[in-house]
């Protein structure tokens, strides 16, 4: 039996790795005995330091305070006991590395198990021998034990289930190919399955992700304004293709302001959109007609001009807000809500749901391998987006087309949870990485404290500092519109950059911003 112990500082009770707050027979944990007591009933109880936690446990035999033991959890007559196996210590106190090796030798495990045991010991994790063996095999399969140990450390630190499936999902998210590449590979494989119903639905979802409706609202504003001028005829024709009609002046002005303020729900209301997804599909159809030279000369000229007015900052924000749902990062949470409320989740199926459906059907091996790889990456991002401690991460990557290049836009948002469960936008850190047509890969680190923002850009281009200074007033204006103050923007060399978003959650870094303004 394990009880929560409180001292002069808060102590969290040791939980088993499946987070049910109870130990289970068959599990084991390494801990150092701090004190042994005897209850009024004659039972021996030890206070054991397990990682950073302190627990009390019934014992089968008396133990020596200060020594480290491997405790195996046994059950007898409905009561849990900790059966202690002492390590043969040359010194009274073992280091973590020595304790991990002793644990390995006691259980007769291969050397590949050492990274797993080392991190389980540091985190005070409760595991079974079978779980250690399976994780050790998953680590061995990577061929990169040092990198894999970072993921193992994250798994135990977050109290995630110590299963090889969880490790493989996190590993795929951390080290997998960019989603843009994976989606392109899947699209090519699906092209040969034109009669497969599940493949058709999945293919359409992949196309939407590879060709996101960026600049939609900005483009529509430009076309609507043109409907009142010399280009009225092609503008009205394009509006008809989009399922829209010209707006009175008051609504046009309200639409312009809504788009400028990134209030896209209000923009949709001003346009009278009953179904935004259907509107996006019509927009994509017009864009495809433009690219295939199916528009009239006047329509094509107006459409090209309208598309050129897009503001990537506004459109990226709009797409980012919807991407987590489109990928399926919230599917499990939505399902849990549906079970409680009895109402099925609304909206089109996510990429994750379509991947799962496709994998259940018979199909091409290459397409299934590509689908499995994507599903593992999405699962890894889903797991990394949760949290149960003070540091929190929301991490997401998705394909983004800027210029003629399609690459991943990756962002990691680190902060604290409010009592409501939302990340606190007043105290956070955002690290993002994207590949631009001219600059190639660039990392941006945004730190926020008390709604004061400092931005660091990491790149070696010598012209970037001057360009950054030129656009700083615009950034300041945009931030002020949303209640934030810009303290400064600096450009640093790439060798001083933080880990990229895909590695950031596993780096163990957490910083509460303390910029001196």
Tell me what the structure shows.
With 517 residues, the chain is α+β, with helices and mostly antiparallel strands. Among the domains are: 25-173, no CATH class; 215-308, no CATH class; 388-500, 2-Layer Sandwich (Transcription Regulator spoIIAA). Helix content is 44%, strand content 21%. It contains 18 helices and 13 strands. It has helices at residues 96-107, 114-123, 129-142, 145-157, 164-175, 179-190, 197-210, 216-226, 232-241, 249-260, 264-271, 276-291, 297-308, 312-327, 331-341, 351-360, 365-384, 464-480, and strands spanning 2-4, 27-38, 44-50, 53-58, 68-76, 79-86, 127-128, 392-402, 405-417, 423-436, 440-449, 452-458, 485-492. The strands form 2 sheets. Strands 1, 2, 3, 4, 5, 6 and 7 form a 7-stranded antiparallel sheet that branches. Strands 8-9-10-11-12-13 form a 6-stranded mixed sheet, sandwiched between helices. Helix 4 crosses helix 5 (164-175) and helix 16 (351-360) crosses helix 17 (365-384). Mean pLDDT is 77; it is low at 1-21, 387-391 and 510-517.
């Amino acid at each position: 039996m394990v009880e929560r112990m409180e001292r002069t500082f808060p102590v969290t009770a040791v939980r088993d790795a499946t987070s049910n707050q109870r130990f289970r027979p068959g599990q084991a944990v390494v801990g150092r005995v701090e004190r042994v007591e005897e209850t009024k009933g004659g039972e021996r109880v030890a206070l054991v330091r397990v990682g950073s936690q302190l627990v009390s446990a019934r014992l089968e035999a008396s133990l020596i305070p200060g020594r480290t033991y491997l405790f195996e959890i046994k059950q007898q007559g409905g009561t849990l006991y900790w059966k202690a196996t002492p390590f043969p210590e040359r010194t009274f106190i073992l280091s973590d590395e020595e304790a991990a090796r002793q644990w390995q030798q006691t259980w007769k495990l291969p050397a590949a198990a050492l990274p797993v045991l080392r991190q389980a010991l540091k985190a005070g994790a409760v595991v079974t021998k079978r779980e250690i063996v399976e994780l050790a095999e998953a680590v061995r399969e990577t061929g990169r034990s040092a990198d894999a140990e970072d993921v193992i450390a994250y798994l135990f630190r977050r109290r995630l289930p110590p299963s090889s499936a969880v490790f493989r999902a996190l590993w795929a998210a951390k080290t997998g190919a960019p989603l843009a590449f994976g989606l392109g590979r899947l699209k090519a494989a699906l092209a040969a399955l034109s009669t497969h119903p599940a493949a058709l639905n999945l293919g359409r979802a992949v196309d939407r992700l590879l060709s996101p409706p960026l600049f939609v609202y900005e483009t529509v504003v430009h076309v609507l304004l043109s409907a009142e001028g010399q280009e009225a005829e092609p503008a009205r024709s394009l509006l008809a293709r989009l399922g829209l009609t010209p707006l009175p002046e008051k609504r046009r002005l309200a639409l312009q302001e809504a788009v400028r303020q990134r209030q896209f729900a209000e923009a949709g209301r001003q346009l009278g959109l009953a179904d935004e997804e259907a509107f996006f599909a019509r927009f994509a159809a017009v864009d495809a007609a433009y690219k295939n030279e199916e528009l009239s000369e006047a329509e094509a000229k107006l459409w090209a001009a309208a598309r050129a007015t897009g503001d990537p900052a506004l459109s990226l924000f709009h797409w980012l807000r919807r991407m987590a749902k489109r990928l399926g990062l919230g599917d499990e949470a939505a399902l849990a809500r549906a079970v409680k409320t009895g109402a099925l989740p609304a909206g089109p199926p996510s990429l994750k749901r379509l991947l799962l459906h496709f994998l259940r059907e018979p199909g091409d091996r290459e397409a299934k391998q590509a689908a499995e790889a994507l599903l593992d990456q999405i699962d890894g991002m889903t797991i990394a987006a949760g949290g149960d401690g003070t540091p929190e991460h929301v991490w997401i990557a998705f394909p983004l087309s800027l210029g003629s290049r399609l690459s991943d836009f990756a962002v990691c948002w680190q902060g604290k949870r409010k009592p409501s469960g939302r990340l606190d936008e007043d105290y956070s850190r955002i690290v993002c990485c994207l590949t631009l047509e001219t600059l190639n890969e660039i990392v941006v680190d945004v730190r926020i404290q008390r709604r004061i923002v400092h931005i660091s850009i990491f790149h070696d281009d010598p012209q970037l500092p001057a360009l950054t200074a030129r656009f700083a007033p615009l950034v300041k204006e945009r931030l002020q519109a949303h209640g934030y103050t810009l303290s400064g923007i600096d450009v640093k060399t790439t060798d001083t950059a933080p880990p990229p978003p895909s590695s950031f959650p596993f780096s163990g870094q957490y910083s509460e911003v303390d910029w001196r303004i």
